[in-house]
Amino acid sequence: MNNTENSLDSMRVFLENMIGEANLARSVGVEFTPAQVVNGSIDKIRRIAEESLPLAKLLDASDMVFHAEGPGASHELPWLSSLNWITTSVEKNLRRLSGSVLELYDKNGAALSRKLDFRLTGIAPGSIWVGTKLMPPTADILEEDHELSNKLISIFQDLPKAAAYIDDETVFASIQEFIPDPAIRDASLSALLEFAPTGRKGIHTLGLSAKGHGTARLSQRERVVLREALKKPLEGQYKTGSLIGVVRGADLDKNRFNLRTTDGVIRCVIKGMTADLARRLIGHSVEVSGKYQMDGQGRPRLMYVESAEPKGKSGELELS
Description:
Elements: H1 3-27, H2 34-61, E1 64-69, H3 80-104, H4 109-115, E2 118-125, E3 128-134, H5 139-142, H6 146-163, H7 175-178, H8 182-195, E4 205-210, E5 214-218, H9 220-229, E6 239-251, E7 256-261, E8 264-270, H10 275-281, E9 285-294, E10 300-310
């Protein structure tokens, strides 16, 4: 039984009880007017119809559900600016995470993520609940690659469980067991940072949930922890060495870029990423040195870059 069926079943129980109570009263000689019979259950039925049922339908129809709380998300009259922030942030962050993941699978993530069809499955009262669903991509977007589409949804739905690894001061290293691919893990944590509210739009916490994947709450505390945690490697096993590849898209805010090598695409973390450095890196063959983590197949996936040197050119790129 899904959430919608549960809500309808609750409504059915109240209606049955309402009729049963009237029949019982009549059998012992007590007469009620129709209004008196209805008044005993109408408030409970109204709450189900106005609150429980819309939320239940949203939960059943969504890949992801977001629940905002704060002064801007009041039950009766939420701020329009708060609602706009939630819907805009959800779409922007899911597209950004999709682009990062698609890049790691050697796709043109920036272009493809703009074409993904995210739908609003509903908005429900009780602070602000917003649901979203990724529609199956058409052939011109992912060439009917349903496996990759399902992978994206799985990564979205893992976000609530990933958030559970955020401690008061850092991210638990055990998250590496939950998300063994270092590049996907780094992209997921970066997405959680974007979802954590700043508090400036009347939203103090943002809940994330997915069917069968639990619920998590993000606040300014998690935002601070994630910002610092993403600057340095988690405790774990690393190799030291150099890798050569062509630099693809860079994220200046996150100090990250992707390096396409013969072993696949590697997510790189680099200090002091500037627009000028990005211009000199993107599209060029570069040798990067530092320490990196591999996935279960032994492929490098996440590198913390200490130096970057253009191949075929003299001089080393300066890293601040």
